[in-house]
Write a structure and sequence with these properties.
Blueprint lengths: L2 H10 L1 E2 L22 E6 L2 E7 L5 E5 L4 E6 L2 E9 L4 E2 L2 E5 L13 H4 L6 H13 L5 E5 L6 H15 L6 E4 L6 H8 L3 E3 L7 H7 L5 H15 L4 E7 L5 H14 L2 E6 L17 H17 L10 H5 L11
Parallel strand pairs: 1-3, 8-9, 9-10, 10-11, 11-12, 12-13
Antiparallel strand pairs: 2-3, 2-6, 4-5, 5-6, 7-8
Helix pairs in contact: 1-9, 3-4, 4-5, 5-7, 8-9
The protein binds iron/sulfur cluster.
């Protein structure tokens, strides 16, 4: 799978499976396909995640000896092998602690799914089972906000302390709170992600009502002080109608701080359709933006290929600098 093909597949974002190949593994509770089934295709050095959707223009077909092919309009687009998601994605225990949120970011399915909250014991048990497979390489925790960002950080920090026993890298993605980086670093987290989500200040208030873009940026800057460069990440969703200028400037601002942006194609989740403008970016835009990110990372001496947890390690949903290009 070359770069253009991966960009094309991400741009479409979904795939239909044959009846002979039902999706394996549990429904994901994290990431863009939360509440849905996903597949992971490994092809050469690249990996892509696609949501399983009936009537997708992409169709999966089985070949011999574990190989599969992706067909579009009768033509093969990519060929590779399916990878088994361990917990949400391959080789990681990527666990959503609170599957609910007091905020209402308009692209996110979590507040609509309004699921449960996992106890520390349950998370430790899930990681233990994942480790028993022999495939586990990293732990990533993400969480909505059950009651307040402060309480959520305290809860996740407590879980992180219990997970140190596995001696694996731990990444955390939460809504920042006062001193959250200090607290989570002390608890034993190795990497952190605070999502800016939308880098267009004009649009931000409509997309993430009740959340402050300025505070998230301040938290990211503080996080670099605690976790170091190449260990702090931030999701930037594209396809919300953001201005290209604001997006590019915002990406540069993040890199200047020592933060690695994750350029994430918006996923018009069925539970959110109609609430805001959401359109999947074209493959050309995905490649152009990924090249821009790669350029600013190089300028600031940052690397996309040293991440130990989360999306920069997984690479399933995005074009990752220094990994995909
Ligand atoms: S890239 Fe991130 S959100 Fe996407 S499947 Fe991998 S870990 Fe999940």
């Amino acid at each position: 799978m070359d770069l253009k093909t991966k960009a094309h597949l991400i741009s479409l974002g979904s795939i239909e499976l044959p009846e002979s190949l039902p999706p394996s593994g549990p429904v994901s509770t994290a990431g863009p396909g939360a509440g849905e089934k996903n597949i992971f295709l490994r092809s050469g050095e690249r990996r892509v995640r696609l949501s399983v959707v009936e009537s997708s223009p992409l169709k999966l077909a089985e070949l011999n000896e574990g190989e599969v092919t992706i067909i579009e309009n009768g033509v093969e687009v990519a060929r590779g092998a399916l990878e088994r998601p361990l917990l949400h994605c391959p080789r990681q225990a990527y666990i959503t602690v609170s599957e609910k949120c007091i905020y209402d970011c308009k692209f996110c399915a979590v507040p609509k799914l309004s699921g449960g909250v996992k106890s520390k014991e349950r998370v430790v048990d899930m990681v233990g089972r994942a480790q028993d497979t022999g495939e586990l390489e990293a732990i990533s925790l993400t969480s909505g906000v059950e009651s307040s960002p402060e309480d959520e950080v305290a809860k996740v920090a407590d879980i992180v302390r219990s997970l140190r026993r596995f001696d694996l890298p731990i990444g955390v993605s939460v809504t920042p709170a006062p001193r959250s980086s200090e607290i989570l670093r002390e608890a034993g987290a190795d990497e952190i992600k605070y999502n800016v989500e939308c880098l267009d200040p004009e649009l931000f208030g409509r997309v993430c009502p009740g959340v402050s873009l300025k505070k998230i940026k301040m938290a990211l800057s503080d996080a670099v002080g605690h976790f170091g460069e190449n260990r702090v990440f931030s999701n930037v969703i594209i396809g919300l109608g953001e201005s290209d200028r604001a997006l590019r400037d915002g990406i540069e601002e993040l890199a200047e701080m020592g933060v690695l942006p994750i350029i994430r194609a918006v996923y018009p989740h069925p539970l959110r359709v109609g609430e805001i403008e959401m359109s999947r970016p074209s493959p050309e835009r995905l490649i152009e933006l990924a090249r821009h990110v790669r350029g600013v990372l190089d300028e600031h001496g940052l690397r996309g290929d040293v991440a130990e947890t989360g999306c920069y390690r997984c690479t399933g949903c995005d074009l990752i600098p220094h990994r995909d290009l």
